[in-house]
């Protein structure tokens, strides 16, 4: 697994806008290509990607834009719905955005004439993260600087409302744990809520602040990861409410934490955008040092491919892609 740890960017896609957020579809859409969404100051673009790592007939990477959605305001977060299908007739694209006006927008399109969107009102401050219910996709959960986590139906009705003790930074809904929600707060607490009783059932502590991002490992439901201060932290929830493992990684402050979707020991972190570049680090729990270091000009967002050890970060009119090994 030895590799040059300062790996250059494997692929780039040129974009017509600054990319604030980028998100691979984590669900199977019934097509060989992977769906990717990215958001800028005015638009959300939906495209497909295919990589030589998965298809020998592809030279490097193939990217195609399927549709550009006018958003009219800066996009801060994007979540894909599991109802998105490219193999349906007609196809269905469904995703939800959080924007700087504190509203959620649910977009549904058949990539032809039907393009609908609904606005969800309720948060009174900046929305930091959102996620669809992973099995049916009939609800959306969001967390905000207004110290709440809210669960909405697809009509925009609030179905649940959890009061937090500090800004909500991340929210995760695991496909194997359909009735639990993980909510990470800026004060360093990560709580799990039972969606049936609407009660908190478990909490984890960073013991340091600010917690900026947390993620629930797809491949192992017992593993939680986060970044707080300049460190990454990992929990095994069966063992302790305190981290099993932690390490300082980013000199200034860490910004995002994302588990790989293909390996429970592989994850990526990003630092705060510096004056010129953002540092991306890919870590493997079996290795003391990061196995890949990348930099992106004023990067933001971080997302892993559904089936490959490949991650992407948005930047100035570009998306950057890095490939690592398992």
Word description of this protein:
The protein has 326 residues and is mainly beta. It is 0% helix and 52% strand. The chain has no helices and 28 strands. Strands 1-28-27-26 form a 4-stranded antiparallel β-sheet, with no helix packed on it. Strands 2-3-4-5 form a 4-stranded antiparallel β-sheet, with no helix packed on it. A hairpin with a 5-residue loop joins strand 23 and strand 24. It is globular, with a radius of gyration of 18 Å. The termini are close together. It is found in: Chromosome, Centromere, Kinetochore; Nucleus, Nuclear pore complex. Component of the Nup107-160 subcomplex of the nuclear pore complex (NPC). The Nup107-160 subcomplex includes NUP160, NUP133, NUP107, NUP98, NUP85, NUP43, NUP37, SEH1 and SEC13. Keywords: Cell cycle, Cell division, Centromere, Chromosome, Chromosome partition, Kinetochore, Mitosis, mRNA transport, Nuclear pore complex, Nucleus, Protein transport, Repeat, Translocation, Transport, WD repeat. Its main location: nucleus. This is Nucleoporin Nup37.
